[in-house]
Amino acid sequence: MRLSKLAMLAVVGLMMWPAFAAPVILNRNLGTEPPTADPALGEDTTSIEIIEQMFLGLVDMDEVTMAPIPELAARWEVSADGLTWTFFMRSDVYWVKYDAKAGQVVYDLDEKGQKRPVTAHDVVYGVKRTLDPDTGSNYAYVLYIIEGALEANEGTGSLDDVGVEALDAYTVRFKLIAPAGYFGQIASMWVARPQPQWAIAKHGDAWIEPENIVTNGSYVMKTWVHNDNLVFVRNPYIPATLWGGGNIDEVHCVTIVEDSTEFAMYLNNELDTIDGPPLPEMDRIKADPVLSKQLNIRPQPCTYYYGFVTTKPPMDNPDVRKALSMTIDRKTIVEQVTKGGQIPANTFAGGTIFGNAALSPEIAPWAIGAAGWDYDKAVTAAQQLLAGAGYPDGAGLEIILMHNVSEGHARIAQAIQAMWTKAFPKAKFIIETQEWGTYLQTITKETSIENVPHVYRLGWCQDYPDQNNWVHEVLNPTLGENKPRLSSNDPYVGAAIARFDAITTQAGRLSDPVERAKLYFEAEKLLIDEIVAIAPIYYYSYNIMNKPWMTRKWHDTPHWDTWSIDMALKAKG
User: Fold this and answer.
1) Within this chain, do residues 190 and 91 fall inside the same structural domain, yes or no?
2) For 22, how many CA atoms within 13 A lie in the half-sphere containing its CB?
3) Are 184 and 314 members of one domain?
4) Domain identity same for 176 and 324
5) How many domains does the chain have?
6) Is there a domain that residue 487 lies in?
7) Would residue 202 count as lying in a domain?
8) Which of 421, 428, 266, 407 is nearest to 337 (CA)?
């Protein structure tokens, strides 16, 4: 039979292509066991990292401008009043899974044997499932700007009344309760992503296991050996225009908690990149002519902070909370402990977030060194506050400080413990640790008060660069995560909390940026100086190390499909 020209070219192509081309493998440490791979349940950076690779959103965010850009939605329209957002989806994205018997990624087929496209109906299901109180999403509050979302999630309304609907197979419309200009960024978040209803209905909570999971993103889960490792493989069916341009075929992830072990693996070329070298190694790395070239430092839109459980005595007294915040020497922490270009923090939101008040001397001046008080002045004032609260020199005070297992967090906690002990020598400060998944459950507002610590460690990184995502969604006493358990019934600062609640809600529903910024400034001052719900410690920096063969583009949440490895260079070691 005579071959057509096209067929002949195909044969030649196959002859020229290596018969057994080795896959490009990225070796990466996630730092802990991911608590989940479920978009509705993700709330921590580890879970979000793997969810980001497996599930596409209606939009993505530009890494420079942070503006929404097309992903599943090719375009969108916003009504003149800002209350209706309509997304027009592309029709060439399909649900896929890993077939262990075939040893490859395959299309997920419906009952008729047809490929399942990702549709507007999948988006509607995903949003409503996140809001369903039976799902138990701790991040559902992010969607409360959608009409009927709050009521549905709290069980006082119906999911049928939530303002999201599929107008046709590839058009989804949202109705909002206020003209939130940041809704485009919310539409990029994992809790608003399409979810596979049929797989969840069939497998229940086990739908995220590798033998059951159905996804649509750049990578597909191949294996997950819990508390040990995960393997992801490239999705060959993702449209070329949605691929990030990298060359990684497989990602082999370990879940090593110890920074020292991770760093040893990196030095031994067992890992291609790490997200933060051990704090004791920073001086050595900077001085080393080889390692210093592999270290990349830049600002990161995250804040490291200690939270106070305001309903657990003695933390129910704001003077106790403020005294502890004032005696954290942030300058010493960033210069002698972390050593990675971090900046002492006096507010929750850092300088890249809209509406931030970072480094203003009008808020927590004791926290920002030369721009405010010196540390000795802060300690003296803190000692007076604690004595006035009934704990002279800390006598009678016993505080539990808890953090998740991490050598870096431990060093910071030990440094702060020493600062507190020096300032309040008669007090007792106890450090406790828990594994990441357990820890996240312990510090939720639902945990019984006797089982929560007085002080907990957390970091917050932007979901989108607006204070609505910070002071409101994280710390609002009625709608946010509210791990400090703020309440307007607080006998000391109830009025301040009520004001904080009102102005953060109001600011999120205004369109005037000047008015919004004024309200957010007031909110930060209330939060840090009067309510003292948290003690901000520093604004993060990226401290990423890449091997010479590793090209890693900057993203707040890693996008593996934008990364590349020069395998020839890697082979040389």
Assistant:
1) yes
2) 9
3) no
4) no
5) 2
6) no
7) yes
8) 407
Residues forming beta bridges with residue 85, ordered by sequence position:
78, 174
Domain hosting residue 164, numbered range: 19-215
Phi then psi for 279, rounded to 5 degrees?
A: -60, -40
Q: Which of 169, 184, 215 is the last residue of a domain?
A: 215
Cα 314 to chain centroid, rounded: 30
Query: The tokens of 415 are what?
Result: 């440094």
Dihedral sign for Cα 64, 185, 306, 346, please: positive
Distance (Å, rounded) from C-alpha 468 to C-alpha 474? 9
**Upstream peptide bond of 314 is cis (omega within 30 degrees of 0):** yes
Q: Is 295 helix (H, G, I), strand (E, B) or coil?
A: strand
Note whether 180 and 314 are same-domain residues.
no
Which residues make Cβ contacts (< 8 Å) with residue 241, sequence separation at least 6?
Answer: none
Q: Is 27 helix (H, G, I), strand (E, B) or coil?
A: strand
290 part of a folded domain: no
Domain end call among 199, 215, 231: 215
319 and 448 co-located in one domain: yes
Residue 155 belongs to a domain with what CATH number? Answer: 3.90.76.10
3-state helix, strand, coil in the chain (%, to 5): 35, 20, 45
Q: Are residues 181 and 304 in the same domain?
A: no
Residue 207 CA to residue 199 CA, distance in Å, equals 6
| DSSP state string for 71-139 | SSEEEEEE-TTS-EEEEEE-S--B-EEEETTTTEEEEPB-TTS-B-B--HHHHHHHHHHHH-TTT--TT
The tokens describing 3, both together, are 């071959």
Neighbouring CB atoms inside 10 A of 67's CB total 12
Is 107:116 a contact under the CB 8 Å cutoff? yes
**Per-residue pLDDT of the chain in tens (573 residues, 90 and over written 9):** 333 333 333 333 333 334 457 899 999 999 999 999 999 999 999 999 999 999 999 999 988 888 999 999 999 999 999 999 999 999 999 999 999 999 999 999 999 999 999 999 999 999 999 999 999 999 999 999 999 999 999 999 999 999 999 999 999 999 999 999 999 999 999 999 999 999 999 999 999 999 999 999 999 999 999 999 999 999 999 999 999 999 999 999 999 999 999 999 999 999 999 998 999 999 999 999 999 999 999 889 999 999 999 999 999 999 999 999 999 999 999 999 999 999 999 999 999 999 999 999 999 999 986 566 899 999 999 999 999 999 999 999 999 999 999 999 999 999 999 999 999 999 999 999 999 999 999 999 999 999 999 999 999 999 999 999 999 999 989 877 899 999 999 999 999 999 999 999 999 999 899 999 999 999 999 999 999 999 999 999 999 999 999 999 877 789 999 999 999 999 988
CATH number of the domain that 303 lies in?
Answer: 3.10.105.10
According to DSSP, residue 303 is labeled E
How far does the chain reach from its first CA to its final CA, in angstroms?
A: 49
Q: Is 414 part of a structural domain of the chain?
A: yes
